[in-house]
Amino acid sequence: xxxxxxxxxxxxxxxxxxxxxxxxxxxIVDAARRLIAVKGSxxxxxxxxxxxGVAMQTFYRHFTGxxxxxxxxxxxxxxxxxxxxxxxARAIPDPLSRLRYYLTTTVDGLFExxxxxxxxxxxxxxxxxxxxKEIADADQPFxxxxxxxxxxxxxAGLLPPSDVGRxxxxxxxxxxxxxxxxxxxxxxxxxxxIGDYLWEFCLGGISRADNPRLTATxxxxxxxxxxxxxxxxxxxxxxxxP
Length: 242
Prior knowledge:
Helix content: over 70%
Number of strands: 0
Low-confidence stretches: 223-242
Number of helices: 12
Order of helices and strands: HHHHHHHHHHHH
Distance between the termini: 68 Å
């Protein structure tokens, strides 16, 4: 269930129809999104209920507080974005090209409305500390979108076998980190440059191209080993020199 259905199920007004309850929660979240576009997250609950045209008690029937409302807004935005990306990419023939579209479009969207992007970034991190499971659930549609394309790419022989779910989660985290960083940092690169580099970076990981993990040592250097055993690294190195 989405946030609207979950909020409706929490409502104690048993005689109200479920569809009416969902309609009210939809109206409250839509009102919050309009206020966020103007004021960020600094709006008050009084301003919210006025914008939504509901009583304060109606708001509290559906949400236990402002944080729960902001969680619903973030979940709403992520889910809408995932659906919009997938629909826009239907005509793209192969899964890797679709995946590239998702990643680069996310970065492009960052600069279309920098105020909204900064709201998502700041509230995402603040709410993650308090509601880690809820934020993880809100992010899941984007991760699922990535996972579907990775799985399709592997099935088509475009990528080597791997833990698709873990790869999708890692790619999603990298994309979100880039989004969050550039929401506030003014770099010297254009959105296209950032998106292209992000794609190349992620593609290198999921394709395992020239994977350094295969040759990188996992053994501690001799100096560290000597310190750990109480020995003398300099002497040990001298003794092993041909």
